[in-house]
Amino acid sequence: MDRIRIVGGNKLNGVIPISGAKNAALPLMIASLLTDDTLTLENVPHLADVEQLIRILGNHGVDISVNGRRERQGESYARTIHFTCRNIVDTTAPYELVSKMRASFWVIGPLLAREGRARVSLPGGCAIGTRPVDLFIEGLAALSANIEIDGGYVNATAPEGGLIGARYTFPKVSVGATHVLMMAATLANGTTVLGNAAREPEVVDLANCLNAMGAKITGQGTSTITIEGVRSLSGARHRVLPDRIETGTYAMAVAMTGGDVILEDTDMALLDTALEAIRRAGAEITATNSGIRVVRNGAGIKPVDIVTDPFPGFPTDLQAQFMGLMTMAKGTSHITETIFENRFMHVQELARLGAKISLSGQTAKIEGVSRLKGAPVMATDLRASVSLVIAGLAAEGETMVSRVYHLDRGFERLEEKLTRCGAHVERVSD
Ligand code: UD1
After folding, report:
1. 98 Cβ partners below 8 Å, 6+ apart?
2. CA–CA separation, 319 and 413 (whole Å)
3. Are 310 and 200 in contact (CB under 8 A)?
4. 3-class SS at 126?
5. Tens-place pLDDT, residues 143-160
6. 308: exposed, middle or buried (C-beta count within 10 Å: 0-12, 13-18, 19+)?
7. What is the distance in A from the centroid of ligand 1 to the CA of 341?
8. How, if at all, do strands 79-84 and 38-44 pair?
9. Which of these is catalytic: 85, 126, 209, 421?
10. Span from the CA of 28 to the centroid of ligand 1 (angstroms)
11. Given the CA of residue 130, which atom of ligand 1 is nearest to it?
12. Which of 137, 178, 190, 198 is buried deepest, with most CB atoms within 10 A?
């Protein structure tokens, strides 16, 4: 199994190209199930989760062709992928496939909307809490779907004539349930109004793509989304938006090591709250023509308290990385996680590098230390694993991160992007 070896101590200087967003690419790919025409997605990142979803969609009858394997030789590895689902050949998403990635559960929305039925295994995914699917079930039932859970599967059927538009207010903000309800409602009879909807940029990206396919969606980016059902959707060409989590991760890496890096092909507006926190920690952040420049010279890292929240709040997917940064702050900081109940698995691994962190309920107290020392550590989930890389970049000596398959789910060519900026990071295959 691959490991990542980091020798800490180098500043980061150079350019890092930011990939297309994993969390936008996945629902966009799933949207191809809604039409018999071709959906072409540009800027799709090359990640294990994308490959897994390609297998899942193939099982439902989506014909997939990949071209533009390297849009810009040597710099970006984004691909253009064509998805064509002439007929849905199977409305079952089996346990063997869904258990590997939670987002594959989301096929339930398009299958139900287009075929009137879906049998989808209850999901797996990152071990960061119980992550139930009650909101999906309640929301689809509001669109008049009949839903039964049997033997680990959700069996959903639409009434004769299809789903029926309705007003549904989420009791809790959920990105995935918003994606699914929005997709399902595009082909429903009548109008659906979703209240307390997720406002994440990835939801807006999906809505914009669905509209390009002929859907009638308004209000995306606000907490009330209105979807007027249409009879059918057509194909479209859509470019996946930049990955704000990858952007924030590298910005924090620069804040951690010091240096001067341009994050290319990204947009500050996607992560205002996180960038503000990094600024308060002592980095200078400015917009460039095609992205963001992050600089930290001289002065040390200042302690900053954060609380994770749904967009536009501080993203839970950057919480672990920010904790990595705070381990070397000059003072004490507090990080409160409000989205997932078990998202502090990186704490004990950071402690192996010499970090001083104590937990009290959903809040971590981080007392900054003046030095971290490299050690063998283990990646526990996707975002937690990259917090270990950030800490390793500033630690003295060698940090060896094992179980890097977690990293490969969401970070495209991480070691190459960091190495080009002067870091000492390499993949070691056993
Ligand atoms: C998505 C992101 C993930 C990010 C998360 C929160 C993708 C592929 N994944 O995950 O990276 O960390 O948003 O920004 O886009 N919940 C319920 N019942 C449900 C559904 C969710 O209680 O039916 C809860 C969850 O347990 C969690 C909270 O709602 O506590 C938010 O989860 P949600 O926004 O649904 O996360 P995902 O869409 O799975």
Report:
1. 56, 104, 105, 120, 121, 122, 123, 124
2. 21
3. yes
4. coil
5. 999 999 988 899 999 999
6. buried
7. 11
8. antiparallel
9. 126
10. 17
11. 26
12. 178
Q: Report which residue type is found at 262.
A: I
Whether residue 317 has its Cβ less than 6 Å from ligand 1: yes
Confirm if 399 and 391 have CB atoms less than 8 A apart. yes
Q: How many other CB atoms are there within 10 angstroms of residue 408's CB atom? A: 20
Question: What is the Å distance from ligand 1's center to 420 Cα?
Answer: 33
CA of residue 137 to ligand 1 center, whole Å: 14
pTM comes to 0.96
pLDDT for residue 101 is more than 90: no
User: Integer distance in angstroms from the first to the last C-alpha of the chain?
Assistant: 6
Q: For residues 109 and 24, give the distance between their C-alpha atoms in angstroms, rounded to a whole number.
A: 16
| Percentage helix, strand, coil for the chain under 3-state DSSP, each rounded to 5 | 35, 30, 35
Position 318, amino acid: L
**DSSP H stretches of helix in 165-312:** 175-186, 201-212, 244-257, 272-280
CA angle 351, 357, 361 (to 5 degrees): 125
Q: What is the pLDDT of residue 36?
A: 98
Q: Tell me if residue 126 is catalytic.
A: yes
How many angstroms separate the CA atoms of 253 and 245, rounded? 12
> Across residues 265-289, what is the average pLDDT?
97
Structure tokens at 14: 């150079």
Give the number of other CB atoms < 10 A from CB of residue 14: 15
Distance CA 23, CA 148 (A): 28
CB 40 within 8 A of CB 408: no
Residues 112 and 184: their CA atoms lie apart, in Å, by 7
Chain centroid to Cα 171, Å, comes to: 22
Angle between helices 382-394 and 244-257 (to 10 degrees): 20
Residues 404-409 have a mean pLDDT of 86
Q: State how far the Cα of 180 lies from the Cα of 106, in Å rounded to an integer.
A: 6
Pairing of strands 3-7, 398-402: antiparallel
**What is the pLDDT confidence band of residue 398, given thresholds at 50, 70 and 90?**
very high
Q: In the block, which residue shows the tokens 């996707």?
A: 382
* Exposure letters 373-395 (e unless 16+ CB within 10 A, then b): ebbebbbbbbbbbbbbbbbbbbb
Whether 247 contacts 271, CB under 8 Å: yes
Which of 174, 245, 273, 341 has the most ligand 1 atoms within 8 A of CB, as the residue to mutate? 174
